């Protein structure tokens, strides 16, 4: 994270009370209401206390282009904010984007103290917002519930630092082999939680034409928000089922990436007539990741065949793997519970986040692993 160390020099060392943590947790709860809807912005929540310590304003950032969390909270608090304390999950901005700087609004409102969950890694901020508040006499403390704040905005932080969306990859492991996940598998464990926050779902249609059924199943179950961009990698456009392009809401964005449209003009016309964008470009994982970054997407769910999955992990566009392992012998995990085993399969070091098993005749395990950039195979 690039942070202006000189700007941060006047910020106080962390010192938090249980009251501080309680209000920051409330701000986190508010921020989470906008998961999957703010791209390319982070999710942010804000709570304002008056001079007596009474909550007088709350807010969260609902969508890019709309006011930030601090502005909503200040509007609710009104004059009661003067001399009060602000709890905000992310450092207030100090630059003009689609909206004015939040630092200006906080200073104008006469806020006495700001408790921020974390420094904004975005280069235009990077400690400058907190430093300006401190320069103007506001007491500033940063780092309250920082771990939770970082976790909530992990996709935003990853995009800023790596230039691609945070990638999630579900797979099924059965009979000593990895296979593309069934729709139900995607919803299990951490996968079900992450469906709330993804900005895109990527399906490689070039291998066996699978994956679109999973997208359809997730849509039917109401597990894909309308804001999620549907991206399909398909070099033979005529093989794509026309039904895939159907959706009851025309606002849902559907994109097909293909190496070339030469000789496929008729298929392009059919797809575009159904509201699908067709783009000719390289379809290797890194190129697709960079394309999604250009769209401002923060996170993506990749539905790939095993070989495609390995390419995506090696290319650095996948950070989390969710593996549903179904094994015939209750005491035989085939090594799938070993992060080093998984790492060797995918060519990147891994660390286990969560593992839960239920043995009833067969052994069904849900594994959540994260690529470990600090280790080597």
From TrEMBL:
Requisite cofactors: Zn(2+)
GO molecular function: diaminohydroxyphosphoribosylaminopyrimidine deaminase activity; zinc ion binding
Presence of keyword Zinc: yes
Function, in words: Monofunctional pyrimidine deaminase involved in the riboflavin biosynthesis pathway. Also has a reductase domain that lacks catalytically essential substrate-binding residues.
Region spans: Disordered: 1-22
Biological or metabolic pathway of the protein: Cofactor biosynthesis; riboflavin biosynthesis; 5-amino-6-(D-ribitylamino)uracil from GTP: step 2/4
Range of residues in the leader sequence: none
Keyword Protein biosynthesis carried by entry: no
Protein origin, superkingdom: Eukaryota
PANTHER family: CYTOSINE DEAMINASE FAMILY MEMBER, RIBOFLAVIN BIOSYNTHESIS PROTEIN PYRD, CHLOROPLASTIC
Enzyme class (EC, first level): hydrolase
SUPFAM superfamilies, per database record: Cytidine deaminase-like
Protein name: Riboflavin biosynthesis protein PYRD, chloroplastic
Keywords annotated in UniProt: Hydrolase, Metal-binding, Zinc
EC number: 3.5.4.26
CMP/dCMP-type deaminase domain ranges (all copies): 18-141
A Pfam family the protein falls into: dCMP_cyt_deam_1
GO terms, biological process: riboflavin biosynthetic process
């Amino acid at each position: 994270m690039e942070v202006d160390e000189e700007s941060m020099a006047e910020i106080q060392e962390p010192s938090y009370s249980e009251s501080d943590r309680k209000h920051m947790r409330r701000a986190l709860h508010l921020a989470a209401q906008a998961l999957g809807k703010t791209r390319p912005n982070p999710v942010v929540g804000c709570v304002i206390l008056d001079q007596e310590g009474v909550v007088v304003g709350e807010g969260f950032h609902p969508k890019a282009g709309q006011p930030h969390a601090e502005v909503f909270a200040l509007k609710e608090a009104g004059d009661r904010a003067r001399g009060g304390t602000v709890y905000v999950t992310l450092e207030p901005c100090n630059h003009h984007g689609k909206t004015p700087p939040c630092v200006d609004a906080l200073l104008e409102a006469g806020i006495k103290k700001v408790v921020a969950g974390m420094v904004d890694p975005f280069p235009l901020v990077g400690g400058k917002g907190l430093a300006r508040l401190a320069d103007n006499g506001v007491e500033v403390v940063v780092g309250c519930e920082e771990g939770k704040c970082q976790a909530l905005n992990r996709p935003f932080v990853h995009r800023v630092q790596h230039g691609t969306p945070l990638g999630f990859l579900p797979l099924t492991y059965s009979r000593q082999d990895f296979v593309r996940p069934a729709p139900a598998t995607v919803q299990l464990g951490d996968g079900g939680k992450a469906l709330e926050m993804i900005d895109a779902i990527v399906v490689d249609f070039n291998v066996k034409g699978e994956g679109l059924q999973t997208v359809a199943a997730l849509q039917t179950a109401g597990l894909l928000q309308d804001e999620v961009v549907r991206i399909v990698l398909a070099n033979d456009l005529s093989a794509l089922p026309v039904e895939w392009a159907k959706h009851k809401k025309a606002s849902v964005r559907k994109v097909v990436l293909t190496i070339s449209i030469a000789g496929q003009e008729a298929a392009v016309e059919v797809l575009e007539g159904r509201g699908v964008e067709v783009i000719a470009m390289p379809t290797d994982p890194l190129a697709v990741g960079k394309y999604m970054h250009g769209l401002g997407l923060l996170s993506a769910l990749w539905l790939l065949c095993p070989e495609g999955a390995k390419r995506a992990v090696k290319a650095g566009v996948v950070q989390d793997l969710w593996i549903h392992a179904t094994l015939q012998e209750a005491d035989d995990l085939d090594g799938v519970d070993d992060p080093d085993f998984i790492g060797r399969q995918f060519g990147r070091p891994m660390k286990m986040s969560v593992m839960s098993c239920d043995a009833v005749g067969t052994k069904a395990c849900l594994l959540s692993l994260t690529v470990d950039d600090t280790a080597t195979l």
